Amino acid sequence: MIREAAWRVFAAEFNDATLEVNGGGDRAPSYVITPLGAKVNRIYAVGVVTDVENIGTDMQPMWRARVQDPTGTFHLYAGQYQPAASAVLSKLKPPVFGAVVGKSRTYTPDSGTVYTSIRPEIVKTVDENARDYWILEACQSLKRRLDAMAEASRMDPPSKEALVKLGVRESLADGIVQAVGHYGMADLSRYTAMLAEALRYLLPEYRGDRSPETVVADIAPAAPEKEPEADAGRETSVLEVIVELDKDGKGAPWDAILTGAKAKGLSKEDLEEAINGLLDKGLVYEPVLGRMKKI
Fold this sequence. Notes:
Layout: E1 6-7, H1 11-16, E2 19-22, E3 30-33, E4 39-40, E5 42-54, E6 63-69, E7 72-78, H2 83-91, E8 96-107, E9 115-125, H3 128-153, H4 160-165, H5 170-183, H6 188-200, H7 204-207, H8 213-219, H9 228-245, E10 252-253, H10 254-263, H11 268-280, E11 284-285, E12 291-294
Parallel strand pairs: 1-5
Antiparallel strand pairs: 2-3, 3-4, 5-6, 5-8, 6-7, 8-9, 10-12, 11-12
Helix pairs in contact: 3-5, 3-6, 9-10, 9-11
């Protein structure tokens, strides 16, 4: 059997998926198909591991972990049949940058809602540079799907053969046709905005003195101008407040953060925007509801 390639897909697109198909046959792989046509059997994701929990027993542990990227959160579940991944997760001390390769899964409870998750094969800690490189790869992959879906939107109906003739990879062309049949035509503007936001993550004013902008310019237009200096100043002030208030190591309570931000002349709206920026950059996380902690 051919080993499936591991897709680079952002959490928000992966979590939008509600379609799982089987390739046919006793041992054929199953695929989670996203609204943009990514036909995911295996997935490679990198982000901040924000928490790890044993939801099983001491005798039969089942490890649940969350990995946050710039768009959302991947959910991981590893048990006795994933011994290597389970061993790593059992020793992780979040928050850390982590990389995971695993199989895509969906779960549909009685309510009919579909949840996606990853059954990890490999989990390892990485550094910030590896996380940033993965973001760039995921952006390139997303841009290819956006371009292919834009071509499909001009067809009535879209066909795998026509897309392949335009240079779209066969697996993506097949995924797009199935995605359109299940979801309808995807909202390209939403995913284009996601792409721009993820790319903004890599710009020098957000990523220190690293300069991937030459690569960024090749795959997407520049993000809209914002006032990066003012944003950075607010975020720095809020981060200082969070660190100062985190006296017990359990995170700073939201009410106290709000009071501290007001003392620095920031409005509630400024605070919320700064918190969102810090979350997007992977600089803070929410260990429990209502508390923020520096990574």
